[in-house]
Amino acid sequence: MSQTITQKILAKHCGKKEVSPGELINCRIDLCLGNDITAPPAIKEFEKIGVKKVFDKKKIYLVPDHFTPAKDIKSAMQVKMMKDFAKKYGIVNFFEIGCMGVEHALLPEMGAIKPGYLVIGADSHTCTYGALGAFSTGVGSTDLAAAMATGEVWLKVPEQLKFIFTGKLPKWVEAKDLILYTIGKIGVDGARYMSMEFTGPVIDRLSIEGRMTMANMAIEAGGKNGIFAPDKKVVEYLKRHAATCRGMTLTASDPDAEYKEIYEWNISGIEPQVSFPHLPSNTKPVSKCKSVKIDQSVIGSCTNGRIEDLRVAAKVLKGRQRHKDVRLLIIPATQNIYEQAMKEGLFNIFLKAGAAISTPTCGPCLGGHMGILARGERAIATTNRNFVGRMGHPESEVYLSNVAVAAASAVAGRIVSPEDL
Amino acid sequence: MNKFKGIAHKFGDNIDTDLIIPARYLNTHEWEELAQHVMEDADKTFVKRFKKGGFIVGGENFGCGSSREHAPIAIKAAGVSAVIAKSFARIFYRNAINIGLPILESPEAVDKIKEGQEIEVDLATGTIYDLTSDKFYKAQPFPEFMQKIIAAGGLINYLKNR
Question: In total, how many domains does chain A have?
Answer without folding.
Answer: 2
